[in-house]
Amino acid sequence: MTNMPRRSESTVRDGQEDGSSVDLEKRRESALDIDQEKTIGLSGAGDAQSRGDGDITSAAQSSHGGLPRTKSLRLSKSKSHRSYGGEDGYTCFNEDDSSPNISSGGTADEPFLVSWEGGDADPMNPRSMTNARRWAITLIVSASSLCVTCTSSLYTSTYGQLIDEFHTSRLVCTLGLSLFVAGLGTGPMVLSPLSEVDHPKTAPVGRSLRVPTDGMQFFGRRPIYICSFTFFLIFMIPCALARNVQTMLIARFLDGLAGSAFLSVAGGTVGDMFAKHELSAPMMVYTASPFVGPEIGPLLGGFIVENTTWRWCFYLLIIWSGLQLALIVLFVPETYHPVLLRNKAIRLREETGNPAHWAPIERMSRSITKTVLWSCIRPFQLLFFEPMCLSLCILSAVLLGILYLFFGAFPLVFQNNHGFTIAQTGISFMGLFVGMLLGITTDPLIWAPMRSRLVAKLEAQGGEPGGSEPEYRLPSTIAGAALVPVALFGFAWTTFPQVHWIVPIIFSAIFGTGVIWCYSGIFTFLVECYPLYAASALAANSFARSYFAAAFPLFGVQMYNNLGYQWATTVLAFLALAMAPFPYLFYRWGPRLRGNSRFASA
């Protein structure tokens, strides 16, 4: 665990007030404002996505010597930006073998600094758990994430019965889907920073006064899991018992808000428990869950609604959520490394009677108001002032918007053209499901080796061993952005009654693969391109994706009815085609754009 740099109040700056903030020394001065950025990262498919936002301390140390911002410095800094996490979620600090304090009880300068003794072999380190237990926890967390995302789309199967029972329109019923997804996008902007802080506590006497008495401490992951899923379960109950559409809509938004808190934390648990060389398989399992969940929803909902009432869709979700909550309470421990080190420091102070033992997290101090304020402002700064962030966020938002629009389009295409029942329409989403799984499994087989070749080529040209560039994450996005319009054009012009129904489903599978390839590159590119502001970049992406996904279903059915199935999908294909060149442009000219950026690594 690296030590947090000492800073006086006079050196605290926001780090983006003017263009001079691009130099590393200025970023070191703004480190207090961006402490929260250290704890947020990204999950991706396999080892190619196991990197996150950076170690601010190492960046500050690199800048201390006044080194010029050369390519080698950029590569060195890129190498140090390691942490693990989940989609839009927290990560642990990277406790790898290169960390100087992991295997010792402190340093010569800080003999009472608490760290992992023996590295991953420390009994309190979650990486010392048995492999079976770590995998069990991974499966529980993944199933819980799948439950949250499945809840968004399972609701779409209830439209027909809701319209009859509540005497409302399809558009109003669709608001239940849009509000849930909007809650998923809104929650991390406000709730995520709150999950990092705790109440002030009184510092013990003695040398432990180095622990600030007004310091805000991390809650950790386990309390967020339990609180989030408890409220997720509670807000499901009024959905199941609703007697009017107003109750349904309000409960759906609150349910999405509660579920978003879980998703913002869950992925980091995988990185907490597995070292980098072990991370590929468990991260792939977790990554699949939030992407395939929306495709499973219509499949389950179709069979339920066809055989019973819409309320059983929510009864099933209540049972599922209750089971997941019980598994979380019983079997998922706290895994967040900084919190565990704090607990270890507390135990050592109690056992030894020496108040000098301290953990790095106990030296952090932050304002709740400022944390939430910057959490809400920075993502919009990146969207407004960073063309790379804006363009890639719009691309990912359009893709998710089209995916959620399909929840209204598929019933039109397959029920009207091919006479599918509700249950059979749910099965038609298996094309997307299979395509996304294919995209996830091929990512480490295709794109990770390609990135390794690019890194090796850079090394051969004199780069630092193991060094990389953010643009090396974009080949998958380039391929995915080209694949998506092809899939949409193919889907559009095979939606005729005389064309066998399997053909548009095959094109939907190709679309799903392209979407996953796009996301796998975009997420990791944003993290490596904006290492000091990775959390804000991912929050901006999540916000844009969620609100596009909330908006598209509201006009999708009308567009398909007015334009026809073929031309409606063609419009979507042209929209995706217009966004397709941007990943290649950033791959080609990304270094120049980053060099002129106020926020990106040079």
TrEMBL record:
UniProt keyword terms in alphabetical order: Membrane, Transmembrane, Transmembrane helix
Recorded superkingdom: Eukaryota
Compartments (UniProt record): Membrane
Region of interest (Disordered), residue spans: 1-125
TM helices/strands, residue ranges: 135-156, 168-191, 224-243, 249-271, 283-303, 309-332, 388-407, 427-448, 478-496, 502-525, 567-587
Membrane topology value: Multi-pass membrane protein
Molecular-function GO term, any one: transmembrane transporter activity
GO CC annotation: plasma membrane
Record-given protein name: MFS general substrate transporter
Gene3D superfamilies: MFS general substrate transporter like domains (1.20.1250.20)
Matching PANTHER family: DRUG_PROTON ANTIPORTER YHK8-RELATED, MAJOR FACILITATOR SUPERFAMILY
Start-end of Basic and acidic residues biased regions: 1-16, 23-38
UniProt domain Major facilitator superfamily (MFS) profile: residue ranges: 153-591
Principal location listed in the UniProt entry: membrane
Compositionally biased spans, kind Basic residues: 71-82
Short name of one Pfam family: MFS_1
